[in-house]
Amino acid sequence: MSGLDTPDTLIDRLKETRTLTREQWVRLITGCDKATEAWLFDEARAVRHSVYGRDVYIRGLIEISNICKNDCLYCGIRRSNRNADRYRLTSEQILACAEYGYRLGFRTFVLQGGEDSYYTDELMCELVAELKQKYPDCAVTLSLGERGEKSFTRLFEAGADRYLLRHETANPEHYASIHPPEMKLSDRLECLRALKRIGYQVGSGFMVGSPGQTAENLAEDMLLLQELQPQMVGIGPFIPHKDTPFGSRPAGTVELTVRLLAMIRLMLPHALIPATTALGTLDPDGREKGILAGANVIMPNLSPPDTREKYSLYDNKLCTGDEAAESLNSLKKRIESIGYRIVEERGDYKP
Ligand code: SAM
Is 342 exposed, middle or buried (0-12, 13-18, 19+ CB in 10 A)? Predict the structure, then answer.
């Protein structure tokens, strides 16, 4: 009977069964205090070590365009933001980023951008094929928003290995309150299911502390991840962007984000889970806190330096210092200082 469960017994149950009921999730999320947290992190690390050891995978993030047809209320590159200084990278620029990244040691390239119709299937398939031909030992991850199943299939056949598409929130009403009317949670979920069917390593995830989010919503996020069984899960705190309708809303917290991250590690032991840029933006030690809560991926920025500031999803987004791909050596030292090591491998999902 869930009413009698303490957070500690719920963590035990989660470890054993890899699942909780909606009520139990709410109880664990709202009842996890500092005392429970240390134990939660220990358990999450133990599970992570049993699957991925102390390896931390790196991904070179190439932000290919900040032009977007969507108008998500939280996002700084939404189409209504007239203050955004728009750019898009050509295939040549993207290939140059990859070449530089390969020399630095990256073996996964993540091509992420707004939903920009410039990147047709033809252009993207050609680009993906060229990347795979030049760097056969590398994985290509795409994060280009919603596309049709045919498009996903063509990109997969061209060589794309992984696709990141956060569901953002699993509650349809909450989804509607942070997105424009033309965007539907059901469309997003259909994309995620199609990506899985096609054979991608699929990433989903959500923002923590987005406006209007409740503990029940977070429980629903956990249940959705449990059902989807994605290979990758990206969660990060919501951070306001001044030129959006949510510009004066409070940010999510690092504390809740890392606790949820640890719970996701216990639920999906094999998942690839990044310590996200948003975590590092809110807290200079945010990424380390993420790794110590069970994350095993970091995505340094490999975009051309003069475009990094323009890919402004939220205020003060980190894009320099250890967030920058060129600072890999310094990042390596920081990760070593907390007992982990960055490895220069593709870093695939281990089933
Ligand atoms: N267009 C693609 C898509 O929709 O998946 C990829 C780009 S989108 C900007 C990448 C992610 O940024 C989103 O999934 C969202 O969770 C995150 N994001 C956007 N605005 C944010 C904000 N204000 N705070 C934190 N994360 C944000």
Answer: buried
pLDDT at 265 over 50: yes
Q: Whose CA is nearest to atom 14 of ligand 1?
A: 166
Pocket probe for ligand 1: among 64, 313, 314, 315, the residue whose CB has the most ligand atoms within 8 Å is 313
Beta-sheet strand order (sheet of 55-58): 297-298, 55-58, 341-343
SS3 274: strand
Which atom of ligand 1 approaches the CA of 68 most closely? 1
Q: HSE on the CB side for 72, CA within 13 Å?
A: 25
Q: Which two tokens stand for residue 247?
A: 């510009």
How many angstroms separate the alpha carbon of residue 137 from the centre of ligand 1? 28
Pocket test for ligand 1, best of 64, 75, 191 (most atoms within 8 A of CB): 75
The phi-psi region of residue 14 (left if phi > 0; otherwise alpha if psi is between -120 and 50; otherwise beta) is alpha
Q: Where does 152-246 show beta strands of DSSP type E?
A: 162-164, 201-208, 232-237
C-beta 315 within 6 A of ligand 1: no
How many angstroms separate the CA atoms of 18 and 279, rounded? Answer: 25
DSSP H helices in 268-300: 277-282, 286-292
As assigned by CATH, the class of the 32-343 domain is alpha beta
Please give the structure tokens belonging to residue 289. Answer: 């806190």
For the segment 135-161, the average pLDDT, to the nearest whole number, is 98
Q: Give me the chain's average pLDDT, please.
A: 96
Beta strands in 194-339 (DSSP E): 201-208, 232-237, 297-298
pLDDT of residue 125: 98
Reported as a single tens digit per residue, the pLDDT across 189-212 is: 999 999 999 999 999 999 999 999
pLDDT > 90? residue 147: yes
The phi-psi region of residue 46 (left if phi > 0; otherwise alpha if psi is between -120 and 50; otherwise beta) is alpha
**Could you tell me the distance, in angstroms and rounded to a whole number, from the CA of residue 117 to the centre of ligand 1?**
18
- The total of other beta-carbon atoms located within 10 Å of residue 129's CB is 16
Q: What ligand 1 atom has the least distance to the C-alpha of 74? A: 23
| Ligand 1 midpoint to CA 280 (Å) | 15
DSSP 117: T
